[in-house]
Amino acid sequence: MSAAKFAPKKVVLAYSGGLDTSIILKWLQTEYGCEVVTFTADLGQGEELEPARAKAELMGIKPENIFIEDVREEFVRDFVFPMFRANALYEGLYLLGTSIARPLISKRLVEIAEMTGADAVAHGATGKGNDQVRFELAAYALNPEIKVIAPWREWDLSSRTKLLAFAEENQIPVAKDKRGEAPFSVDANLLHTSSEGKVLEDPAQMAPDYVYQRTVAPEDAPNEPEFIEIGFEKGDAVSINGEAMSPATILTKLNELGGKHGCGRLDFVENRFVGMKSRGIYETPGGAVLLEAHRGIEQITLDSGAGHLKDSLMPRYAELIYNGFWYSPEREMLQAAIDKSQEHVTGTVRVKLYKGAATTVARWSDHSLYSEAHVTFEEDAGAYDQKDAAGFIQLNALRLKLLAARNRRFK
Amino acid sequence: MSAAKFAPKKVVLAYSGGLDTSIILKWLQTEYGCEVVTFTADLGQGEELEPARAKAELMGIKPENIFIEDVREEFVRDFVFPMFRANALYEGLYLLGTSIARPLISKRLVEIAEMTGADAVAHGATGKGNDQVRFELAAYALNPEIKVIAPWREWDLSSRTKLLAFAEENQIPVAKDKRGEAPFSVDANLLHTSSEGKVLEDPAQMAPDYVYQRTVAPEDAPNEPEFIEIGFEKGDAVSINGEAMSPATILTKLNELGGKHGCGRLDFVENRFVGMKSRGIYETPGGAVLLEAHRGIEQITLDSGAGHLKDSLMPRYAELIYNGFWYSPEREMLQAAIDKSQEHVTGTVRVKLYKGAATTVARWSDHSLYSEAHVTFEEDAGAYDQKDAAGFIQLNALRLKLLAARNRRFK
Amino acid sequence: MSAAKFAPKKVVLAYSGGLDTSIILKWLQTEYGCEVVTFTADLGQGEELEPARAKAELMGIKPENIFIEDVREEFVRDFVFPMFRANALYEGLYLLGTSIARPLISKRLVEIAEMTGADAVAHGATGKGNDQVRFELAAYALNPEIKVIAPWREWDLSSRTKLLAFAEENQIPVAKDKRGEAPFSVDANLLHTSSEGKVLEDPAQMAPDYVYQRTVAPEDAPNEPEFIEIGFEKGDAVSINGEAMSPATILTKLNELGGKHGCGRLDFVENRFVGMKSRGIYETPGGAVLLEAHRGIEQITLDSGAGHLKDSLMPRYAELIYNGFWYSPEREMLQAAIDKSQEHVTGTVRVKLYKGAATTVARWSDHSLYSEAHVTFEEDAGAYDQKDAAGFIQLNALRLKLLAARNRRFK
Amino acid sequence: MSAAKFAPKKVVLAYSGGLDTSIILKWLQTEYGCEVVTFTADLGQGEELEPARAKAELMGIKPENIFIEDVREEFVRDFVFPMFRANALYEGLYLLGTSIARPLISKRLVEIAEMTGADAVAHGATGKGNDQVRFELAAYALNPEIKVIAPWREWDLSSRTKLLAFAEENQIPVAKDKRGEAPFSVDANLLHTSSEGKVLEDPAQMAPDYVYQRTVAPEDAPNEPEFIEIGFEKGDAVSINGEAMSPATILTKLNELGGKHGCGRLDFVENRFVGMKSRGIYETPGGAVLLEAHRGIEQITLDSGAGHLKDSLMPRYAELIYNGFWYSPEREMLQAAIDKSQEHVTGTVRVKLYKGAATTVARWSDHSLYSEAHVTFEEDAGAYDQKDAAGFIQLNALRLKLLAARNRRFK
């Protein structure tokens, strides 16, 4: 729309070095005759980044316009961990692995645009998905003047054949294994790998085994359970088995452990923000372990008032992240509430990993609110007076009695 | 309190036939000199009921005052299934197996009191737990004139020794295996078995294997996964592997299947309504499978508006059930909203059971809202115009742009 | 977008008979060469409808294609009253007078389209406002095949001069007082009159007196208060001063009474769904009285559980109506919950009307939950045992004490 | 209960100097033989405090045990203003004037107990009301070891006659006008005056005029409206008519202005936390003006995401304050979210005061998000592309279309 009519002078492109974003790079150059700046981020997707530099140079990008950055620590510290403080699950099950990576990419795109004097940013997301929304809302929220170019919504390269033809015409090298169509589409970062489309499009068909890339099948996982201890401070994981680690290191290690035991697989049909349902296969090995452990430590360190409020806010919080509103006042308000609750979420959880499941089996903390003195079946030395319960119940019942008496009059 | 001063003439007691409720029966007779009516319900706890009749008769209860009933179908149809329509989880994890059985027991206690002209009901729950609250709130909500006797809050039988002495004095037979103290306390019904207390009181210690009674350990479950198909109509399970079954039969069958595969174990520290934390071991084999499958069928039959509203109401709904407010206007309001959402939650889900996990792997329905025509990566024949997304994003972004412009002025 | 490319054969137009919709009528005929069906509804906007027939005929609409209907009773019974059961206020203050009328108009447009074999409907709302969204979402929700034509988003009649030129070219009569531009824009129906735009566009400037059309200024209202009694049944108003009346008659009468006393004026800056803020002047005389009275009767007939749940759902409910989601599963779910709560909202409220304010001063009901026996400062004959409060407080305090003890350890 | 059995050595009493708390003072001395410390706070209730010192001395309280403090600034700054940032209304209408004062009193009671080595605090609230809960929850949340003595729940002075007899026996002077029973009970502080009980106990009867103490009747208010301008910074009022003032000064001034114009009267039936309904007459003149103005400034400075989230959290927030959970983690979490939203709630509101109503008539701010460029009915120079709305609507409609198509298949 408005964006379509806009002719950018200099565009910062989220560039993976792969075929699709290489085509976009070239298309931006030919369609708009504009200067292109490339931004390639290591979010833990497990690919070499340096090849992207060579490819960009080959396509005429000036060295000072090539940005390649390892943002893994920032990703986990400022995005993944704050989200896990909320125990966020979209539609009850999805750990938001794709959603949470987009705002960081947009943030860097906008910052690089501001540094390099670019007037636009561009991304390779299609017009059907959520990612376009996430990229663009984040960009606009960070710089209201920036323009966003979404080639997939603009160009007429609507089939694989046309794309490959464009690549050929423009001397973009196409790896042999990219000539055919991939049987499904993949997104990956340190938190998760998602697969969707093509062979996965029928939710009545089980996903083929070859879709899974990051976790072993539970059937192939070790026959012995493994027990690990995760340490938390103020709601964030800080150690594994007693060894302190940085945020990205912890998530990497949890991915390794979770993946080995087949944890974090999800076959899911979700509601996209753009209005349709889609089916995805998600693998979030470390995330699944982390969620379980975080809940475990909250069980003893969070009181019911805080915990129940958190639970009731979580669906809205997860929806905001899924829909692309990370940089919105309401997400920040919820984050303020959630972070406030985490001040004493400090302690250690023992988690059992076995054949696809991560299960809390023990937890302890100096900050524990669990009081054996109160709960014990034994004599409690006056910690709790059972007779108090009578009054508690009477007053909780009072309105129900008044209701019952009223309602009986009208039966 | 007020209840303590009240002297009942005739009391309906929730009577299991076990030692504790036999002592209560006798205590009611001796303390108040009142007539006792016993109510023994088969909620699927897996115990013979008829021995309770003999024991009651032995303690002088008139035959017409002995009520023994199989309420399993009512339990599942009117309590368990409505709750599962909500995907209810207390504090993110607990399937509310104890909570949901209490209102039904109270309902029958009150009804029997009205039939037999009793002026009070009595239960065997202690003054520290949630069950006393659940029993009593439900009773008062159904009959505002009824009195509730809670012997554990009144008597001075505060230790095992005193209890056994009272039993002996009163010729209450004590089974040999009941002479010692049980290492933990158990509650069971068709939905779950819970264990708590004693050896489980330290949440930093792993629960011993012998606590689990209803599920095999995942390690001992079959090495081959089992795939089952659960059919739903309007949100309720109606068939397994194509065979139509009654509510209680379905849950029984799911318990068998889930239990065999080690599904539905939970080691949990929860917040009791009475203000303390407690640790419980829950086994809900059929329930765990049912929750997973219900979510699976909702994924394709529920739209996002309904689904997200349900998700946001669920924590409050679960809290109400946990706290004993089944018979409250607010639970009924939420139920009306939830039931409204289930009109098209009809279809079939394939679930994989393996080593402790129940996982949706496929789902289909004539009522499906999933549209491959819209979501496909292939040509969609005009089902969806990608250019619409530009306008969608622009208007969603407008307020964020206005915010960003404003906030920049104050940096 | 997609709609723009579509060429309708037969269009049902929401036609007021005024200049703007007459221009749209002609534009549809000339732009698309399609047959036009007109629908003119009496929603209580206070204008004669029959002139619309003559105008439509003059523009060549066949008599069988002219639909003129009095929908006031349906409007109040099926839209206004259900909404008032919720005490709905958008952004704390706005009674949603425009929002609630749109779904009914769309419903009739779609029904008439189905009756007359039309393939599209058309409305006269602009591309900046909420009404386009409300019209179109309702239409699509009722008939997924229908197309909606929104001429203001399509044509190039972007200025008053161009519009008048088009009218002149096409022999559309223009009343003299319509030649100049109106100083603001007005929407009216039985529930309210809204004014916005032009002289009202600066929210720092007080609205001029001449904007108000339906209420006297509080300063000009009678110097004596007037007391009226409104009777309710199941949440809906059914009588005034003891006289039973139909829904539309009651609202008409309340408008008269409220308007005479200057009630229901609102100067408001709101957030439109399309992302911008706008300023409106609303006059909802009868609605303001009705809201006050409904709250008054709920005070004695609704219990706190139901009332607090309603309060917490209301903002979402109001937002859904404002945003145009009347016909959505989530609005229907909330309505089911709200309606469930109203079963005993029956009784009478005395309201004082004076100089702009409507104030509940007394209320009574056979369904009242108010118990003087419990609340009295006098002896209560055992209705309430004050000692119960001690236990109630102790158990409510328990978690706070455990928190305080924990937090003290870390100071 | 537990508290009842406790024998305090030294008690800090919330002491007004009036008859009731003087009787309590003496009763504590005689019943427990304990040392009494008095705390008398100026919360703006409009009474002289120094007489309380003389009375306390007369009853044998040591000078160093008499604490008389002006806490008005703290009250408004740390309690009233944070609450008004939330636009808190209990059950839609009540400005929480009593509720918000209790935590501050408890805070000082506990602090003085810690300073003076007292082991208990005492208050004069009855066992039927909310205030006992508020006092005690706050005290326990601040010091888990403190004991609270609530004489009204303990003693047998259950009638006026017995109270006066006790006073006489103990040489407590009784003012002549206190010999008879007051026709209703009053609580007052800088935010409000509440009246309840006795002549007000029948909610079907209009409250007599003499109940109102702090506001003129709207009928007696000036015949000319008065316009005032309230300045806000980060959500708090900071000036009136351009003059900067301290929090307590502002509220005092607003009370004067609002009271003169009859603003802030409320005749209300509410749900007490202890389970019964009660009827109160509230006068909150300054608060009513402040709420209106705060909403006015939020209208232009808060975006819809933040505003709607605030609206949806407000009922829970108000309920927490009403129920006495000011010092709870969940109130603090909500406060963190609310405060986060107020960072740009800065600007000025013009409010019209007239015959009982306070009405925003204009508002302006450097922080305004209102964009005339976007909303204008005139040419907007490209600020907004109306065609974007088509895509916005199409994608919002998509799920509704899919629903409609599905639902049609099952009709």
Question: How does this structure look, described?
Answer:
The first copy, chain A, is of the alpha/beta class and 411 residues long. Chain A has two domains: 10-84 and 101-180, Rossmann fold (3-Layer(aba) Sandwich), CATH 3.40.50.620; 186-302 and 344-364, Alpha-Beta Complex (Argininosuccinate synthetase, chain A, domain 2), CATH 3.90.1260.10. Helix content of chain A is 42%, strand content 19%. Chain A contains 14 helices and 14 strands. Chain A has helices at residues 2-5, 19-32, 50-58, 72-85, 102-116, 131-142, 151-154, 160-169, 247-260, 285-301, 304-323, 329-341, 372-375, 388-409, and strands at residues 10-14, 35-42, 66-70, 120-122, 147-149, 185-188, 193-196, 226-233, 236-240, 243-244, 265-271, 277-283, 347-354, 357-364. In chain A, strands 3-2-1-4-5 form a five-stranded parallel beta sheet, with helices on both faces. In chain A, strands 10-9-8-13-14 form a five-stranded antiparallel beta sheet. In chain A, helix 2 links the parallel strand 1 and strand 2. In chain A, helix 4 (72-85) crosses helix 9 (247-260) and helix 5 (102-116) crosses helix 6 (131-142). Chains in contact: A-B, A-C, A-D, B-C, B-D, C-D. The interface between C and D is large, with 108 and 107 residues.
